[in-house]
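stage 2 :: seqdesign
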C-alpha cells in the first residue's frame, strides 16, 4: 500500500512538473505583482499549458502567415511614414490594406493607441505576434525617443526577406534529403534480390556441392 501511494505521488508530481515547469511556476507566483497584471492566475497558467501543447495545423498556418507578412507590413509602414504619416496613422492604413491574420493584429495596435494607451506600449504589444518581436521592440523604442522609424522599418523588411529566403533554401535541402528515402526503400530490396542473393546462392552452392 505504501509503495502504491509513493508511486501515485511521484506520478502526480511529474504531471505537475510537465504542465507547469519551474519557470512557469515562478511566473505564476509573480503574476499578481506584474505591472501589466490584467490577467488572472488562471489565465497565466492556461497560457503556460497552451505553450506546451502540440501546435495544430490551423495554428501552424496562422503562425507561418504572420511570419511571412513581416517584410510586406514593414515595407508598407515605411512607405506611409516616408510620405509624412505618423506611425500611429500608418498602422491604420496598412491594417486596412493587408489580409488576415496580420490585419487584426495591426488593427489591435491602432485601437490601443486610440483608446489612450501609451503609443510605445501599444507597439510593444505587437511583440506577442510571431515574427514581430524585434520589430515591436525597435518601433516602441524609436517612438518613445521620437526618432525616425522609416529606415528602421526598411531594415527589418530586408532582414525578414533574407530570413525567408534562407528558410526556403533550408526546406528545399531537407526535401531533397527526404526524397531519397523512398528511392532507397524501392531500390534496395531489388538490389538485394537481383544482385546480392544470386551471388550468395552461387557461393553457397559451390561450397555445398
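stage 2 :: out
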Amino acid at each position: 500500500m505504501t509503495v502504491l501511494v509513493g508511486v501515485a505521488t511521484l506520478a502526480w508530481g511529474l504531471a505537475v512538473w510537465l504542465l507547469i515547469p519551474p519557470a512557469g511556476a515562478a511566473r505564476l507566483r509573480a503574476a499578481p505583482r506584474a505591472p501589466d497584471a490584467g490577467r488572472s492566475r488562471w489565465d497565466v497558467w492556461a497560457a503556460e499549458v497552451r505553450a506546451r501543447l502540440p501546435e495544430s495545423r490551423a495554428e501552424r498556418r496562422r503562425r507561418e502567415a504572420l511570419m511571412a507578412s513581416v517584410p510586406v507590413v514593414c515595407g508598407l509602414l515605411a512607405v506611409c511614414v516616408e510620405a509624412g504619416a505618423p506611425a500611429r496613422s500608418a498602422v491604420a492604413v496598412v491594417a486596412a490594406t493587408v489580409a488576415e491574420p496580420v490585419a487584426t493584429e495591426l488593427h489591435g495596435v491602432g485601437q490601443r493607441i486610440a483608446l489612450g494607451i501609451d503609443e510605445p506600449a501599444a507597439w510593444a504589444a505587437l511583440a506577442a505576434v510571431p515574427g514581430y518581436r524585434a520589430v515591436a521592440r525597435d518601433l516602441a523604442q524609436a517612438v518613445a525617443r521620437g526618432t525616425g522609424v522609416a529606415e528602421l522599418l526598411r531594415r527589418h523588411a530586408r532582414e525578414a526577406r533574407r530570413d525567408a529566403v534562407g528558410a526556403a533554401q533550408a526546406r528545399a535541402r531537407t526535401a531533397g534529403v527526404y526524397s531519397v528515402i523512398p528511392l532507397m526503400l524501392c531500390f534496395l530490396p531489388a538490389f538485394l534480390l537481383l544482385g546480392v542473393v544470386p551471388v550468395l546462392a552461387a557461393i553457397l552452392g559451390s561450397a555445398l556441392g
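stage 3 :: structure notes
- The chain has ten helices and no strands.
- Residues 1-8, 16-39 have pLDDT under 50 and may be disordered.
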